[in-house]
């Protein structure tokens, strides 16, 4: 899944793939589960195809503090904060968007050939040599729209402007004069009518027709029966319509007719239409000169164009700035400031500030894995592969972002789910992690245990000679490896399984063989770990406590909170 | 990042082995920055008013290089034929007048026409022939042996990446405007870059 190992991906509990295994009798506060076994069937399988859509890196996840749950992109809704034009950065009120559409109305246009923004450029039409000094002041300045990227300009379609503002008006005028000019030139009645005009004529005609020929909807007004057919049947039994209504129905309504002629919007095909001109053009300029569907759909004015030479610049589409809301409780979990272009967030509830963060690294690193940001060469060195059946020890570090001490319980299936079964053992599955706090609290507090942070000669000597104490430490079952102020590390033993299944006596069928074949990324060793964090927090005055809490929250009271989620730890690829 | 790596390796190689000094014929009005590099054993001819920025590289290792007047070769651009692939003989490179080769461009063409602009990080393959008044947009490439007509614009990717700029071809005032822009740029750069062509012409 990822190219660089080790990696950590968090699964949002929203999917049924990752719903937590039922915690044993957690309702009874007196029974504290120290560890619980995870069955193979309940374990989250990071190799399943659906898991790709559930696992996210931590920076993609938000957290809802009302529901106390992780929110992934599938669990939040986005709502529009404001609309703005990406080029002039002008905020357009949503009422204007509803009325005028989702395009910028302030002279921002996109190049039809490369879709980058067009800039208003001044060109001088007259030759420099002919300018007299008196003419210099009142120069005949003309303006065009020029693309900086592909050098397209409106001169290609012979459009130029007299002034640099109100481009929209001038463009519309030029377009109208162009199309109406071409219509007058053609004398025959069968001349092509422009798309816009035809549409307008057609809508008007059919609206009129509908008004004239609408069938009497309500022959029996004020009746309690909803179905007109039933009502008609019943009334027939009683003798039919009232006198007035009978008179009206005698006049047969004109059946609705279709459009005829240009005035009503109808265009007819005649065999001697000028398709030959189009075909010749196509033959001489080739496929590349025709418009793609994106170009045709870029603006209504371009919907009929066949050739790129006829494309008109399209107004820039507006973009939206959106806020994210939790789907279940409608609480806003991320929202930016309403000022256009400001990247600051008013509200931003990141998961990394609420849930314990895991990271894994080898205990005895043989290859130093460097941060990809520091690589000078573009090609990455080959990452070492894991040898099957060799026990490797890893240090799993849990960092706590909360201001309270958190009790962590880890659970993982003994063998990893998927085609390759590797054995995983967490030496100490249940422990506490200290609270995060101010940086200088660490300096003042005496709770840190690592010798290296201790000032003094002993520590300096130890670090110089390669401290004997830390390198000879052996990981022990049930013991924490390392504990700092707000993080705790434990050792995990992993024995990678072999890629090839053991030879079996019973010959496998074709299907079983096909199933056993390794597909892409099946050799990646990913360990699913279920993390459960519990902590106590004070209820702030004014806050309501919802969710799984049994004890109703009153201001100042301690309330137990917990959060649980699956994490897929990517260790590496297995060789073989 | 690739160019940084390339620069690192080339700097190392240049200190390890003293570079062969090319036979240079540089016009007196040309301005060649001190940190520019001209390497190779073939002839390098540089016309008048050419400006070569620092860290530009002209490689005459596999063929001669002729640079027309009024050209501009920006930083980290690499001008010069690369390794010959196959049985093609040594390729001379002729760069026309007023050509702007922007930063990090890689030019291995056989011929670049007058007043063409090769934008930032563009690349022109070996043996290509680029017409005059062309423009290769940033990060676009001209394939090997490709021939570009005059007034072509290369942009975007894939199929729709070529366009003949009719405006440039038909309207002289637009071309003049561009020329004026180039001339103004040269004026500014003349004052900014100190000349050290003596380094290449002496000895």
Describe the protein's architecture and organization:
- The complex is a heterodimer of chains A (576) and B (203).
- Chain A is an alpha+beta fold and 576 residues long.
- Chain A is built from twelve helices and 22 strands.
- In chain A, the strands form five sheets. Chain A has a six-stranded antiparallel sheet, with no helix packed on it.
- Chain A is extended.
- Chain A starts with 6 loop residues before the first strand and ends with a strand.
- The model of chain A is unreliable at 22-36, 128-138, 185-190, 448-453 and 546-553 (pLDDT under 50).
- Chain B has a single domain, classed as Hexapeptide repeat proteins (UDP N-Acetylglucosamine Acyltransferase, domain 1).
- Chain B is built from four helices and 21 strands.
- Chain B starts with a helix and ends with a helix.
- In chain B, β20 (152-154) and β21 form a beta hairpin.
- Chain B is globular, with a radius of gyration of 16 Å.
- Chain B has 203 residues and is α/β, with parallel strands linked by helices.
- Classes of the chains: A alpha+beta (576), B alpha/beta (203).
- Chains A and B meet through loops of A and α1, α2 and α3 of B.
Spell out the key features of this protein.
heterodimer; A: 576 residues; alpha+beta; 3 domains; six-stranded antiparallel β-sheet; five-stranded antiparallel β-sheet; extended; B: 203 residues; UDP N-Acetylglucosamine Acyltransferase, domain 1; seven-stranded parallel β-sheet; 27% strand; globular
